[in-house]
Amino acid sequence: MKRFYGTELPNPLMLGTAQYPSPAILEQAFCESGAGVATVSLRRESGAGQTFWKMIQELGVLILPNTAGCHTVKEAVTTAQMAREVFDTKWIKLELIGHTDSLQPDVFQLVEAARVLTDEGFQVFPYTTDDLIVGERLLAAGCEVLMPWGAPIGSGRGLNNAYALRAMRAEFPDVPLVIDAGIGLPSHAAQAMELGYDAVLLNTAVARAGDPVLMAKAMMQAIQAGQLAHQADPIEARDMAEASTPVIGKAFLS
Amino acid sequence: MTVWSVIGAGVAGLAVASELAARGATVQVFDPGGPPGPHGCSWWAGGMLAPWCEFENAEEPVLRLGQQALGWWAARTKVDRLGTLVVANARDLPDLRRFARRTHGFQEVVTDDIAQLEPDLHGFGKGLFFTDEAHLDPRRALHDLYHTLKKQGVVFHKVPAPEALDNVIDCRGLHARESLTDLRGVKGEMLVIRCPEITLTRPVRLLHPRMPLYIVPRGDGVYMLGATMIESEDSDRITARSMLELLSAAYALNPGFGEAEVLEIGVDLRPAFPDNLPRIRRRGGRIYANGLYRHGYLLAPALAQGVADLALENKHSEMVDEDRA
Q1: Are the C-beta atoms of B219 and B202 separated by less than 8 Å?
Q2: Bridge partners of B270?
Q3: Which of the residues A174, B44, B97, B144 has the least number of beta carbons within 10 Å of its own beta carbon?
Q4: H/E element, A92
Q5: Mind listing the pLDDT tens digit for each residue in B80-115?
């Protein structure tokens, strides 16, 4: 598995921490799925005396703070600085929202913020689209990980453009790539891993499921299945049947 | 004769005192804040008795124990049993389907039914009508409990409880967190607005991807608009974002709310345990009753009954958790 800024993830599931029915269920979802990374929003859940943040730190997993809800470079940089203090990590998931309805990233500001944060010593995980050129610019700005969307945040639509995501994988064979956002079902997560992605980041699909703990386990199993399938070099799809046993020489025309 | 000392005159403390008194116990209440008022978080509640709706995002005890609350409150204060109407904007219809899948006790309603139930709601093609739910005015409910208890001879002390008391029931909410270390605060923000030109008769919930937004009629054109749920323990002020979201919810229900006057802005912290369910804990001579979270009025009756069972009959209800501390 590829390393993320020198760190090897215990497994490819990054799980968000928002919107669970209770912190107890959140904790159970982590324990029973074994997810290795927790993303945390600083902007939505901000303020002094954070029992909730302490609970997340006590999960004993890697923490990836995010800048969810930020709309400008300045906001994102300030939030990242705060995250570094609170969680004592250089990691930051950089999210810069450009569009209110689709929550599309503003890729222009994203590249700029990535450069500023990299210069300040942050290790940036940018939430981006599947645009190759933006990906190149982010790498040039100092990012060593790319996190393209599958579909808009919370939409649960899966991989809207598998073609573009496949092209991105081919274009950046050595860069750790994470599908971030849009996953609704385990089959979507498996598909991301089958495409050769290195990890999947999701939140709503688990937190808002009727049974978040079960769904977290299902996601982990699907991600592991997809990862194994990719390593196993799957067959190519074809139009006609291909018999698995030879038919020549047998009395098949009877 | 045993005298039970209840600490805290919020919804938890007053419900406990009321239940104990109803069972013939002698009770006194300590609260340095005095009678119920803006210093307690139950002052800022919605007052919805909505166990069927709450079940959408809560565990089974909320549904079951919450149903007991309707009768308990009706015997003590004015309760309006007009049901709850749940609607969603057209773009959020998947949320309405999800809500319907997770709950029961509703009728599906369409444009004409909605117009009949609430003529001032426009533009909603589909909704869910939870027929058996109710709402009350939390301030009136607190006031009624307080005055009934006083009439029954319960003494209210406007001072902190002395250290050396026995038979104490600690209902201090988040103030008890130095003893209950797994208690946390969950920030809630709400507004009280006045808009006499719009008439809504029952609580209306507008589904929203991040928070359960609702508007509760208080009578005379006054509405309570709530409530955010933020994992933050900063209770100083409302944020502009929360205010925008609350007001745009009202505006989405009826653009006439744009003309409303903002009467009050409420911000407080709900006391909650990690599973967001209330607990009763006994330590020596003290019983802690806490963690009502966003279900103050819905679960205070069950909490009070559990406390009375434990205090008077040594019966362990399901809310009693064995104290490992």
Answers
A1: no
A2: B186
A3: A174
A4: strand A91-94
A5: 999 999 999 888 888 899 999 999 999 999 999 999
CB neighbourhood size of A152 (10 A): 16
Beta-carbon count within 10 A of B324 CB:
5
Can you read off the two tokens belonging to residue A229?
């399938």
CA B130-B131-B134 angle, to 5 degrees, is: 90
Q: What does the pLDDT look like over B56-67, one tens digit per residue?
A: 888 889 999 999
Residues of B11-30 as b/e, b for ≥16 C-beta within 10 angstroms?
bbbbbbbbbbbbeebebbbb
User: Active-site residue A93, yes or no?
Assistant: yes
Instruction: Please state, in angstroms and as integers, the Cα–Cα distance from residue B312 to each residue in B10, B18, B232, B281, B287, following that order.
Output: 22, 14, 37, 15, 12
Q: Does B248 touch chain A (CB under 8 A)?
A: no
The beta-carbon neighbor of A21 closest among B57, B232, B234 is: B57
Q: Rounded to two decimals, what is the model's pTM? A: 0.84
Residue type, B179: S
B residues 23..62 contacting A (CB < 8 A): 57-59
CB B249 within 8 A of CB B212: no
Write the DSSP assignment of B38-89 as a string of letters.
Answer: TTSGGGG---EE-HHHHGGGS-HHHHHHHHHHHHHHHTTS-EE---EEEE--
Sequence-distant (6+) residues with CB within 8 A of B104 are: B52
Q: Which of A27, A48, A208 sits opposite B234 (nearest CB)?
A: A48
